[in-house]
TrEMBL record:
Domain of life: Bacteria
Protein name per the record: inositol-phosphate phosphatase
Record Gene3D superfamilies: 3.40.190.80, Fructose-1,6-Bisphosphatase, subunit A, domain 1
Lineage: Bacteria, Bacillati, Actinomycetota, Actinomycetes, Kitasatosporales
Alphabetic keyword roster: Hydrolase, Magnesium, Metal-binding
EC number, UniProt record: 3.1.3.25
Reactions mediated catalytically: a myo-inositol phosphate + H2O = myo-inositol + phosphate
InterPro entries for this protein: Inositol_monoP_metal-BS, Inositol_monophosphatase-like, Inositol_monophosphatase_CS
Native organism: Streptomyces heilongjiangensis
UniProt key word Metal-binding: yes
Length: 281
């Protein structure tokens, strides 16, 4: 556990692997035994048919809510399912304590369908700044780590997003239309233009990982929930990428962002996608 005199940087140097171990144990105990084995009563809707929650989401979040503060005394957890039950708990992101931001199963629709495209996301933030993040895809056996100022790795190997190949259409993953306002839909329509190949997004966490790996050029998203974005945005940053809102500002996990926003393999691509979004608005 962290000592009183330790800083967050010192904690991460000593315990980043302990967070990974906690995530692997949560997945082994609560997620993977239910993958392709879900009973009907283990799946519920939260805000409609595209917003699902399962027993795997709930139980994995409870596991991590116990395990993570035990590593860092004085820290708190903001988890997707706990916030759904008590929206006021989201305010901890704006507080003074170190905060673990947890999405136990990102890509629940894919998980329910028995597809491998889901992951567990954990980010550690302090004063509104994400200091470290972990992206674990148990069905794909992938673990990405990003530590602010120290780079990003995938299974221990450095990640470098690079830049899109000149002359090729930009591959851009976009928000599901069900989660966009009319104004946001108009902005996203700016991507339906020559030189861009937009498609609906899957798991946000895995889309961010695809950017960090140089396998996706950008995303354009229209919602703010920190558990979907905190881990992946740091992963993109630390692999050389950038993110911008339509107000030409980096995305803030504390909220109040002008939407949609983009994250991309490099700053030039982020500016290009932002320009298309503002042209469509």
């Amino acid at each position: 556990m962290i000592e009183d005199s330790e800083t967050i940087d010192e904690f991460l140097a000593r315990h980043a692997s302990d967070v990974e171990e906690a995530m692997r144990k949560a997945a082994a105990a609560e997620i993977m035994p239910r993958w392709r084995q879900l009973a009907e009563h283990e799946v519920d809707q939260k805000n409609g048919p595209h917003d699902l929650v399962t027993d795997a989401d709930r139980k994995a979040e409870l596991y991590l809510t116990r395990a993570l503060p035990a590593l860092l005394p004085g820290s708190v957890v903001v988890g997707e399912e706990a916030v759904h039950a008590n929206p006021a708990s989201y305010e901890a992101i704006r507080g003074d304590a170190p905060v673990w931001i947890v999405d136990p199963v990102d890509g629940t629709r894919q998980f329910v369908r028995g597809e491998p495209g889901f992951c567990t996301l954990v980010a550690l933030a302090l004063d509104g700044v994400v200091r470290a993040s972990w992206t674990y895809a148990p069905a794909l056996d992938l673990l990405a780590l990003a530590i602010r100022g120290r780079g990003a790795t995938l299974d221990g190997e450095p990640l470098h997003a690079g830049s899109p190949e000149p002359g090729r259409d930009l591959d851009v993953a976009t928000s599901h239309p069900d989660y966009t306002t009319q104004e946001q839909k108009a902005a996203l329509l700016g991507l339906w233009t020559q030189g861009v190949a937009p498609r609906p997004c899957g798991s946000a966490g895995l889309e961010y990982l695809a950017i960090a790996r140089g396998r996706l050029d950008a995303v354009a998203f229209s919602w703010e929930a920190a558990w979907d974005h905190a881990a992946g945005l740091l992963l993109v940053e630390e692999s050389g990428g950038a993110h911008l809102t339509v107000a030409d500002e980096p995305f803030r996990i504390t909220g109040g962002n002008a939407l949609p926003f983009t994250a991309a393999r490099d700053a030039a691509t982020a500016r290009r996608v932002r320009g298309l979004l503002t042209a469509g608005a």
